[in-house]
Design brief:
The model has no long low-confidence stretch (mean pLDDT about 85). About 25% of the residues lie in helices and about 15% in strands. Strands 2-1-5-3-4 form a 5-stranded mixed beta sheet, sandwiched between helices. It has a two-stranded antiparallel sheet with strand order 6-7. It is of the alpha+beta class and about 230 residues long. It is built from 7 helices and 7 strands; from the N terminus they run ββαβββαααββααα. Helix 2 (about 80-95) packs antiparallel against helix 3. It starts with a strand and ends with a helix. The protein has a domain at about 130-175: Alpha-Beta Plaits (2-Layer Sandwich).
Length: about 230
């Protein structure tokens, strides 16, 4: 067992657990897009970033790939972490604005607009479909192709795969394919139709960390009530 501190709470976790697994086990929510139980960690979306270390020498890491180490101090919802997540959500919205899952994340994190050039792509390169096909379906029918801005997912040389069983697992797990948002005003990018309540403890500059991890939080709802 190793002992770590999560948001001021000292806990013991099994050796080999990641920060994400440890935080979720003790009830601290961390959003993810590229992580899925049963698949190897990938760390592509970066939504699961947390702040580790002690001031003033802290750093932001992806919790799904960083192991829980003895004496580690973790903050899952600090100001720095929330700013980073909002920036990442804006970038995801620029790539795939009609994903219902990404739109819900935007609402949950108070993102009401995005400042980047709209791409209207259908893939955020989270790698879930590739890992699902390889690790769970044991087919390896699809994979990453190219590099940089030319990177894409598909079959080698765009030739129909002989090992693909048309099981649909890649579509089932894809956050961009699972459910399409009906929002159709592309110039706005963010609809916030499914708006959620924000933590007033952070928004009103009272604290530097989120004070409550309940979902939904009754205090947050009351604070937003006109």
């Amino acid at each position: 067992m190793v002992t770590i501190t999560i948001n001021g709470l000292e806990v013991s976790v099994e050796e080999g657990m990641t920060i994400l697994e440890a935080a979720r086990f003790f009830g601290f929510p961390i959003p993810t897009l590229c992580h899925h139980e049963g698949l190897s960690p990938y760390g592509a979306c970066r939504l699961c970033v947390v702040e580790i270390g002690e001031e003033p020498r802290t750093k932001v890491v992806s919790s799904c790939t960083y192991p829980a180490e003895n004496g580690l101090k973790v903050r899952t919802a600090s100001e720095r972490v929330l700013r980073a997540r909002r920036m990442i959500i804006e970038l995801l919205l620029a790539s795939c604005p009609q994903s219902k899952i990404i739109q819900d994340l935007a609402s949950a994190h108070g993102v009401s607009h995005q400042r980047f050039r709209q791409e209207y792509e259908d893939c955020i390169m989270c790698g879930l479909c590739v890992r699902m096909c390889s690790e769970q379906m044991v087919a390896k029918a699809i994979g990453f192709r190219g590099r940089g801005t030319n990177r894409s997912i598909g079959t080698p040389f765009d030739v129909q795969s002989d090992v693909c069983r048309l099981c649909g697992a890649c579509m089932y797990i894809c956050p961009a394919c699972q459910l399409r948002c009906t929002f159709n005003e592309p110039e706005k990018a963010v609809c916030n139709a499914c708006a959620n309540f924000q933590p007033p403890c952070i928004e009103q500059d009272r604290f530097h960390d989120m004070m409550c991890y309940m979902d939904p939080c009754v205090a947050c709802e009351l604070a937003k009530t006109p």
